[in-house]
Automatic annotation (TrEMBL):
UniProt domain Sulfatase N-terminal: residue ranges: 8-76
GO molecular function: arylsulfatase activity; metal ion binding
Protein name listed in UniProt: Sulfatase-like hydrolase/transferase
Keywords recorded for this protein, A-Z: Calcium, Hydrolase, Metal-binding
Source organism, top-level taxon: Bacteria
One matching Pfam family: Sulfatase
Keyword Lipid metabolism: no
Gene3D superfamilies found in the cross-reference section: Alkaline Phosphatase, subunit A
Family: Belongs to the sulfatase family.
Protein species of origin: Candidatus Mediterraneibacter quadrami
Amino acid sequence: MKILKKKPNIVFVLTDDQGAWAMGCAGNPDVQTPNLDRLAANGVRFDEFYCASPVCSPARASIVTGKIPSCHGVQDWIEKGNVDGYKYPEMSKVPGF
């Protein structure tokens, strides 16, 4: 594993209820999204990805835990679950992150 001398700046942008087709940078000529297009052009854009859930709360819990909804327990908007464990903030402390 290569350890970086300088840690990169990471800004994670997550939109809610937005399909990939809803951005100009994704090839849709009918929408104007200049700010998202600029972010996509100057950053990293995930064109092929898997979303753990079509519901926002379980999807977000999956992002911060790295687990699927059946493991972290957040199944719906209002359900409480166990999101304890290895989370994104702890990942940033891993050497080479």
